[in-house]
Structures are given as structure tokens and as C-alpha cells.
Amino acid sequence: MLTDCHIYEVDKYDVGNGPGIRTTVWVAGCSHQCKGCHNPQTWKWNQGKPLTVELIDKILKACEDPKCSGLSLSGGDPLFIKNRTGITELCKTFRTKFGSTKTIWMWTGYLYEEVKDLPVMQYVDVLIDGKFMLDQKDISLPYSGSRNQKVIYLHADI
Ligand code: SF4
Fold first, then answer.
1. So what's the pLDDT on residue 66?
2. What confidence score (pLDDT) does residue 155 get?
3. What is the mean pLDDT of each run of 10 residues along the chain (158 residues)?
4. SS3 label, residue 118
5. Ligand 1, CB within 6 Å, residue ranges
6. Which sequence spans correspond to the domains of the chain?
7. How far is the C-alpha of 124 from the C-alpha of 10, rounded, in Å?
8. Whole-prediction pTM value?
9. Residue in 39, 47, 149 to alter for ligand 1 test, most ligand atoms within 8 A of Cβ
10. DSSP state for residue 116 in the 8-state scheme
């Protein structure tokens, strides 16, 4: 088990979180409590499956499919304090295996400025940051739920 990180669910073929067909990992645990959250059932951190080396292998196996364009990390919050070590390991292992042939997209309730120096950020290609704000909800946005959230491309070659 990689610290306290827990995985709520894995979608092997997801078309709703990032470009193309992606493997999406819904991480358990979130402390932001946004009003109108689309996924409040994921707030509790110690539910689902603990992130183990075996589970990482399984997730990366799903990403091997040539149709899969990468890994999406949502939740819950992948950067919830108890998740950080485990998610960093998952991203590092992904990058070692796939290099830059597939991408990592991550959704977090933290602002970019609050998390930009975390070690995991060297592996993330695109970060969607900030809490969901009901009064700024906009269903026309392709990758975020409210207008305050930014889609930040961390690498120029994406
Ligand atoms: S950060 Fe995401 S999962 Fe957490 S409360 Fe806000 S909308 Fe829900």
C-alpha cells in the first residue's frame, strides 16, 4: 500500500475527462467540499481500494491499449494530502513506462499556485485547477465545470 492513498474507481475507457479515450482514475478523498460537487460520494478518503504496486500495474496495463491516449486523475482530489505520495508514484511509474507518448491530465480543487512546486507536477501534462463554484457553473466548458477553473498546459509540446 502506498501510504494512505485510496482509489474509488477506475474507468478503463472514458471519453468524458480529457481528449480521446482515456483511463480515468477516481481518487478517494477531498477536503474542499464545493457546493454542488458532482461527486460527493468520493469525499471520504478511506474507501475503495488502497493504491498498491499491484493496482498501479493494473492501471498502467489498461493504459497500454493503443486506443488509450493517457491517464486522467480526478476524484475526489488526487492532491488531497493523503493521496499525494501515492499519486506521485503512479504518475512517475506512468511516465517511466510511456515517456511522452501518452498524457496525464489531473483535476484538483487546489489552485495551481498552491501546488505548482509539488514533485508530482513534473509528470502532469495538463492541470485543471480550483474548486467548483456553483455560481460560475458553465456546462459548455469542455474540461471544467465552472468558469473560475483554469485548464493549464504545463508542457508546451502538448
Ligand atoms: S474539488 Fe472536486 S471532488 Fe472535491 S468537492 Fe470540489 S468538485 Fe467535489
1. 96
2. 80
3. 89 96 98 96 97 97 97 97 97 97 98 98 97 97 97 80
4. coil
5. 30, 32-34, 37, 39, 42, 75-77, 109, 131-132
6. 6-153
7. 18
8. 0.96
9. 39
10. T
Query: In residues, how long is the chain?
Result: 158
Whether residue 71 contacts residue 63, with contact meaning beta carbons closer than 8 Å, is answered with: yes
* Amino acid in position 61: K
d(CA 125, CA 8): 23
Give the ligand 1 atom nearest the CA of 40.
Answer: 8
Nearest CA to ligand 1 atom 7: 37
Among 129, 124, 157, 122, CA closest to 143: 129
Are the CB atoms for 115 and 77 separated by under 8 Å?
Answer: no
- Phi, then psi, of 23 in degrees rounded to 5: -90, 120
Q: Which atom of ligand 1 is nearest to the CA of 107?
A: 2
Q: How far is the CA of 35 from the centre of ligand 1 (A)?
A: 8
At 1 the pLDDT is 66
CATH number for the 6-153 domain, one of 3.30.2000.10, 1.10.1740.110, 1.20.1330.10, 3.20.20.70? 3.20.20.70
